[in-house]
Amino acid sequence: MGIFDFLSKQFVDVIDWVDEPGVLAIRYPMQDREIQNGAQLTVRSGQTAMFYNEGVLADAFLPGLHTLETANLPVLTSLLNWDKGFSAPFKSDVYFFSQKEQTGLKWGTQQPITVRDKEFGPLRVRAFGSYSFRVEDVAVFAVKMMGSLDRLTTTDLEPQLRAAIATALATGLGGGEIAFLDLAANQAALSEQLRAAVEPAFAQWGLTCTSFFVESLSLPEDVQAMLDKSSSMRVVGDLDRFVRFQSAQAIETAAGQSGGVAGAGAGAAAGFAIGQQMAAGMTGAPAAAAPGGGGEDAFAQIEKLHKLLTIGAISQAEFDTKKAELLGRIR
């Protein structure tokens, strides 16, 4: 190298890095420049700086202002066989790592996870939420994730982290120790349980999962529809009481219409009769006798059914079914 090349060569005497959102690590751009002995290294809060010599980790620096010299570069001094009073510029790769918490990241199950629920049996569950993490063990992270890259961001890691979360979810939910309804009702406890399940996967890369939130836990639409129907039946409870309730509602509606209370009374009798018959049809028990005796012919019963249909106490399908049954008796 000629004298002019040496004079034109640039030396680095100030090394620092300002954090960028979502950036986890960078390799400081040296561009074949050498570091001046006595240069100033600034490591900001939440950062760690590491010096490498030919791919081998040498010295690490925590937050603070550091003067680079043989006294505080012991590993690099040993690797380069520097004399104690060595003061010439030197080459080294410098990496900065951000240990700040990376927040607002989303996770979700691309496919439903099949779990064995202790109440409902096998279920396919979907879950969505958010999480955050930070670099905990810089040395492990540098080797396993950063390697020789110039730059590493959360976007680069997210597919790998989401895959680890999906695996942990299958393990955490698959045991079936807690019923689905209890899980959905206590999402805070579930979030902590799943964070603990995710943590080992993150730790192997030098990361720690600082927060994990389950924001939605759901079943497939057809399963949810069946669950809703089952809930409705439990709410209805005693069928006879349900029929009486419907008849009372019909009476209240009819009383406000042109027939008045008298029409409502007639409707009540018919409503009670059809209610008893409907209940008997669903339970297999014989129907109780309607008020006023059992000598009414089929046409009279059809007329009463029609009144119930008019006031909305029964549906058109129920009316048609019962009408066909009554007409069949007189043929």
What does this structure look like?
The chain is of the alpha+beta class. Helices cover 45% and strands 26% of the residues. The protein has eleven helices and twelve strands. It has helices at 3-8, 74-79, 138-146, 154-174, 180-185, 187-203, 221-236, 239-255, 260-283, 298-311, 316-329, and strands at 11-15, 23-27, 34-43, 47-53, 56-61, 64-67, 93-98, 102-108, 113-117, 121-135, 151-153, 207-218. A five-stranded antiparallel beta sheet has the order 5-4-7-2-11. Strands 8, 9, 10 and 12 form a four-stranded antiparallel beta sheet that branches. Strand 4 (47-53) and strand 5 form a beta hairpin. Helix 4 (154-174) crosses helix 6, helix 8 (239-255) packs antiparallel against helix 9 (260-283) and helix 9 (260-283) crosses helix 10 (298-311).
Uncertain segments of ≥5 residues (pLDDT<50)? 1-8, 260-264, 281-295
Would you list the SSEs in sequence order as H and E? HEEEEEEHEEEEHEHHHEHHHHH
Number of strands: 12
Counting helices, strands and paired strands, the structural category is alpha+beta
Shape call: rod-shaped
Q: How helical, in percent, are the residues?
A: 40-55%
From the alpha carbons, calculate the radius of gyration and give it in angstroms: 38 Å
Which percent range describes the beta-strand content?
A: 25-35%
Number of helices: 11
The largest sheet has its strands arranged as 5-4-7-2-11
Averaged pLDDT: 76
- Main pleated-sheet profile: 5 strands, antiparallel
Measured between the Cα atoms of the first and last residue, the distance is 119 Å
